[in-house]
Structure formats: structure tokens, C-alpha cells
Amino acid sequence: MSAAQATTIGAAEAGGVFTKGLRWRGKRVPYITRWTAESVPQPRVVRRVTLAGEGIGFEDEDPRTDRRYGVLHIRSALAPGRCEPEFHLVNPHRQRRAMEHSLCQVCSGPTVGTRADGRTLFLLGGAHPIAEGETTAAPPVHPPCAIEAVENCPPLGRGYAVALVERATLYGVAGVIHDPKTLAPLPHVGSRPGELAHVDIASAVSPWTLASFTVVSLHGVTSVSPDELHAMAEEVSEPSAYHDSVGGAGAAATSL
């Protein structure tokens, strides 16, 4: 990767967070975007019986890194800025971190405390408005970053919805449910384009799910129109200012 293709702005990956971000051929790469160097081989899914019951697992499973909330997760790596960004794919580790810490999916800055009313902004693909109680694997976003995403992400050009949300609570995971008898992946048609199955971590199918992302449910939802979004963006400073409170120790490429 040449310096002209990708430029680190500020520090590099810091504990899973970009303090400024990465650019690729003049375009900012969203924080949650996966890079080609972050793809790792996935082990074979096998039947596994534990004290919690029967479900799927990996042959060489390490419960400390392969499971979250008791659910099996795909493996990923951390190597931001290496090789090329895959704008249509999401890095599972950074997605989970953005969800857990309410970080902007584009710039990685904190979204909590950026509004006087305590609400956060969510941007979802699709033609219908965001509903009360809707589940999503999309982390929150700052208004200027939302506009940037809409302008640069082709799928969002086909339709998107924006809303201010009072609470985003943990729901479960997004992943592929496997047949308990054959262990074959079961088909799923998501409620929004490209979605995996959203599985409640307390449900009977969670032990049979190979998860990719963390899912939250949205409450206290107020729809935001495109004009309102642009007005909100004009009220805030450059998104890079959100990074001042974000930091940590550097992280090398790591298999998770």
C-alpha cells in the first residue's frame, strides 16, 4: 500500500480506536470498515455440548476469544490501513467496540454527551423509517459523519433512514443460525438490505448461531429528515474534535 493510497491522520489504531482516521485515495475510510489484511480463515463449525447445553462451536475453540455473551463469534483480525479497504464489509471487532462504547461508526469519536438532550443519532439503510424498538447492527453516528456516509456509500444512495434515539440497549447478535440436526447454515432474509439474522442472546437459537456483530434495540426513536440532518450537522464542529477524549495503547494486527 503506497502513501498515496492510504494516509494515517494522527495516531494509528489505539485499543481498537482511530484517534483521527484513515484515508484511501482521498476518501476517509469509516472506522468500522474492514481492510483486506483483516480477513482470516474461519475454522469448521462442529457440534459442541457444554454445561449450558448443546450448540455449535469450533474444533479449536478458545472460549475466551471465540465467545461473547455465550454466543460463538466469527474470527477477525485488527490490521487497519493494511492493503485495501473493503467499503462494503465491516470489521467485527471494531463494530462491537463501537456498539459497546457508543462510538461513531465513521470517525470513531464518542457520541455520548455530544447533545444537550442526551440522544444519539442512528443511520440505517433501507426505504422505511426507523421504528420504535427496531434492532440494528449499525453503530451510532455524528451528524456530519452521517452526511459523509450518505454521500459516499452507494447502498445508502438507494435509501436510508435517520433517527435520534434516547436509548440503545443490548439485544443480541447478528449472525447465521445453523440447523441443530445438520449444522448447515439456515437461510435468512433480513428486514433491511444485507442484514444477518438478529438473534436475542436469551433465545433458544443463540447456541446455534455463528455471530458476526453486536445488535442493539432502539428506544425513544424520533425520525430525522434529510433537511433536519443537514441543520444538525451545521450546528456542530468538525467531527475530528470528537476524538479528543479517545485514546489508548497501540495495537498490532491481532487474531480475535
Mean pLDDT: 83
H/E topology pattern: EEEEEEEEHEEEHEEHHEEEH
Helix/strand structural class = alpha+beta
Span from first to last CA?
24 Å
Count of separate DSSP helical elements: 5
The largest β sheet comes out as: 7 strands, mixed
What is the tally of beta strands? 16
In the predicted model, the low-confidence regions spanning at least 5 consecutive residues are 1-19, 238-256
Radius of gyration: 18 Å
The helicity comes to 10-25%
**How much β-strand is present in the residues?**
25-35%
Q: Which descriptor suits the 3D outline?
A: globular
Description of the structure:
By secondary structure, this protein is an alpha+beta fold. The protein is built from 5 helices and 16 strands. Strands 9, 10, 12, 13, 14, 15 and 16 form a 7-stranded mixed β-sheet that branches. Helix 3 crosses helix 5. The model is unreliable at 1-19 and 238-256 (pLDDT under 50).
Based on the model shown, name its key terms.
256 residues; alpha+beta; seven-stranded mixed sheet; 5 helices
Summarize the structure.
By secondary structure, the protein is of the alpha+beta class.
